[in-house]
Amino acid sequence: MTNILASKTALITGAAGGFGKAIARAFLDAGAQVVITDVNEGILQLTHQELSSLGPLHVIAGDLTDREMADRLIQTARDQYGKLDILVNNAGIMDRFDPIGELDMAFWDRVLAVNLTGPARVTQASVQEFLRDDRPTAKGGAILTVGSINGLRGGIAGAAYTTTKHALVGLTRSTAAHYATKGIRSNIIMPGLMETNIRTAYENGVNEEGRALAWKSLGVNPGHVNIDDLSKLVVFACSDQATYLNGAIISTDHGWQAI
User: Fold this and answer.
1) Which of 7, 53, 101, 214 is deepest in the core (most CB within 10 A)?
2) Which of 81, 76, 71, 60 is nearest to 14 (CA)?
């Protein structure tokens, strides 16, 4: 991939493994300076060892549900590279297919804290960074949020996860609308099934009726999404080659949600 992100600084959340790690690799290949964060410090350090030879890479472990974490992340980008140009909201956790009538509301609170409130806080802090008066380059920036087909459909996950992915569409489009004239772009991709570690949530059991409903939809799924290929789309969407792309909801699911 050409250096279409040269001179850009990017922050990627949930980047210790899976799709976040693939995005980090693609951003480094595209010439970006990258800050990655994840709650799993051990795996994060292994990712740093694997990818650091590809370009400027800094890691910071932390939990996005921590109210101060968003500001720490932005300050880290500024301290390491002088600024922030791109935010990729990738961090998230899966639920256990529970419908609302059978959902433990403490678990609901946890899923919303990680999947929605965390990205909202980092988005807020990033927007403030993009617009700061003493910014060393022109004001503005790009935000790419990793949504899900669950933000378009109702029966592939439980109430908590599905709600957060629908809500991220609203956060994305609101940000795009309010800051379009200020050089800030905000887009969301809606992947179908990917080979990631999100299924670790199932280790504690699942709601069998909810899973059975989801499996009906799986029967018409055209195929899994390759995370390395999809990461290249993220690079393009965040680059200056896509300045026209704002407020977009991009289905990346082999046409699954169209069926």
Assistant:
1) 214
2) 60
Give the tokens for residue 103. Answer: 């959902």
DSSP-derived secondary structure for 157-183 = S-HHHHHHHHHHHHHHHHHHHHHGGGT
Listed in sequence order, the residues at least 6 apart from 250 whose beta carbon sits closer than 8 Å to its beta carbon are 187, 188, 189, 190, 233, 237
- The backbone torsions φ and ψ at residue 242, rounded to the nearest 5 degrees and listed phi first, read -125, 35
Distances (CA, A) of 139 to 125, 181, 189, 234, 254: 14, 11, 24, 21, 36
Please, are residues 82 and 100 in contact by the beta-carbon 8 Å criterion? Answer: no
Q: Rounded to an integer, what distance in angstroms lies between the CA atom of residue 192 and that of residue 19?
A: 12
Kindly list the domain boundaries of the chain, sorted by start residue.
9-253
Catalytic residue, chosen from 8, 165, 182, 216, is 165
Q: What is the dihedral of CA 3, 39, 145, 81, to 10 degrees?
A: -40
Alpha-carbon gap, residue 97 to 71, rounded angstroms: 33
pLDDT beyond 90 at 202:
no
CA distance linking residue 233 with residue 212, whole number of Å: 32
Query: CATH for 9-253?
Result: 3.40.50.720
Report the helix count and the strand count for the chain, using DSSP H and E: 8, 7
Give the pLDDT confidence of 77-98 residue by residue, as tens digits: 999 999 999 999 999 999 999 9
Assess whether 139 carries a catalytic annotation.
no
